[in-house]
Amino acid sequence: MELYHLPTQIEIVQVISERALSYSRKAYSESTFTQSTDDFLRALENAFRAFGGVPKTLVIDNLKAAVAHPDWFDPELTPKVQSFCHHYGTVILPTKPYMPRHKGKLERFHGSIKGECIRPGTPISLEDAVRIVGRYVEHYNNVRLHSAIGYIAPADKLAGREAEICAARDRKLAEARERRKQQREAARLRTVA
User: Fold this and answer.
1) What is the pLDDT confidence band of residue 79, given thresholds at 50, 70 and 90?
2) Who has the most CB within 10 Å: 5, 27, 69, 121?
3) DSSP-derived pairing of the beta strands 76-77 and 67-69
4) What local confidence, expressed as pLDDT, does residue 177 receive?
5) How far is the CA of 129 from the CAs of 18, 95, 105, 124, 142, in angstroms?
6) d(Cα 136, Cα 59) in Å, to the nearest integer?
7) pLDDT digit string (tens) for 97-113?
8) Architecture of the 5-158 domain
9) Are 84 and 44 a contacting pair, CB within 8 Å?
């Protein structure tokens, strides 16, 4: 599969290995047994494939697998991660330590996963959690409407269908207004007659 650069940023954290595109909010989730550099990079490559490209910028937590020396102003990435970035032509920006607001969109996604998926689903094993989270991410990406991106699904936003969806929505709204106007006029004429 040939990967291309997406004109956006991706925010990344290693928990069940969740990733979300900042622009479209499209999410990706993968479970890994360790937080090793190899697992981290493999999960990133899988996310690139799932997203259909490589973002120009990656915002990550200060996990030891990727960040050799966390620092507020000049964090140092591990050599393997630096090589990975060079290979894919992307840039990794670790968040400032203890500053979750620097990756707010992903923190919000964590809240959604916990509140709408994990707690109600109550997984009893890792396999069960992977299945439940996978189903949720599929719904989150393709069905769930997001207020922050104009009440459209992330997959539609990423595919560039936002204008088409908004135009269809506006057309339906105008038709509904016209029907209500005609119904009010018909009701007024009935009461006058």
Assistant:
1) very high
2) 27
3) antiparallel
4) 96
5) 13, 27, 22, 7, 20
6) 23
7) 777 677 777 777 778 88
8) 2-Layer Sandwich (3.30)
9) yes
